[in-house]
Automatic annotation (TrEMBL):
It catalyses: L-glutamine + H2O = L-glutamate + NH4(+); 5-[(5-phospho-1-deoxy-D-ribulos-1-ylimino)methylamino]-1-(5-phospho-beta-D-ribosyl)imidazole-4-carboxamide + L-glutamine = D-erythro-1-(imidazol-4-yl)glycerol 3-phosphate + 5-amino-1-(5-phospho-beta-D-ribosyl)imidazole-4-carboxamide + L-glutamate + H(+). Its main location: cytoplasm. It holds the Pfam family GATase. It is found in: Cytoplasm. This is Imidazole glycerol phosphate synthase subunit HisH. PROSITE patterns: GATASE_TYPE_1. IGPS catalyzes the conversion of PRFAR and glutamine to IGP, AICAR and glutamate. The HisH subunit catalyzes the hydrolysis of glutamine to glutamate and ammonia as part of the synthesis of IGP and AICAR. The resulting ammonia molecule is channeled to the active site of HisF. Keywords: Amino-acid biosynthesis, Cytoplasm, Glutamine amidotransferase, Histidine biosynthesis, Hydrolase, Lyase. Its EC number is 4.3.2.10, 3.5.1.2. SUPFAM superfamilies: Class I glutamine amidotransferase-like. Residues 7-203 form the Glutamine amidotransferase domain. GO terms for molecular function: lyase activity.
Amino acid sequence: MAEIVALVDYGAGNLHSVENALRKVGAEVIVTADPETLRAADRIVLPGVGSFRACAEGLRAVDGAIEAMSERVLVGGAPFLGICVGMQLLADVGLEHGSTPGLGWISGEVRPLAPKDRDVKVPHMGWNEVAPLPHARDHAVLDAGEAYFLHSYHFQAERGADILAMTDHGGSLVAAVGRDNIAGVQFHPEKSQSYGLGLLANFLEWRP
């Protein structure tokens, strides 16, 4: 029997493109925010585009969704992938339009991009390198390559061990975070062609 991937539906704008990409690599996807379905899922993917505050408030507005995700991922050990703002929501707090609490699964803050070079534009938009750090070069999900980014805020992780990969846009930026059975990517695998599909296929095979 195929494993079920729960794609969390809380009004995130990239929901259907992520669903299509997951199905393309063979995933059995259920688009849902139902707590009982989340508790029964084999894997969970949290998408997200837009502002940290809007996404955090949207997720909290779905009764029982965060509790169910926490139970399935933090207690049950289900593999989890956060994408773009879905990755940023792993932080303790986001500083977009004020201070908004995140999930607090990976310690850190989401801060505005502030490139040292004034000629470097914000948002960070387009293709850029994903460079795994030495301690993450054998990570089952993440490979080196080029991916599509679109963001104006970045994850500033508290612990270096939680940073899986970096990129560069007027200075070093976190491209991926993770620990144990949790992974998050700042870029959009669903827009990253063969590299992104490869990452999603890796996620489906991941046995943390």
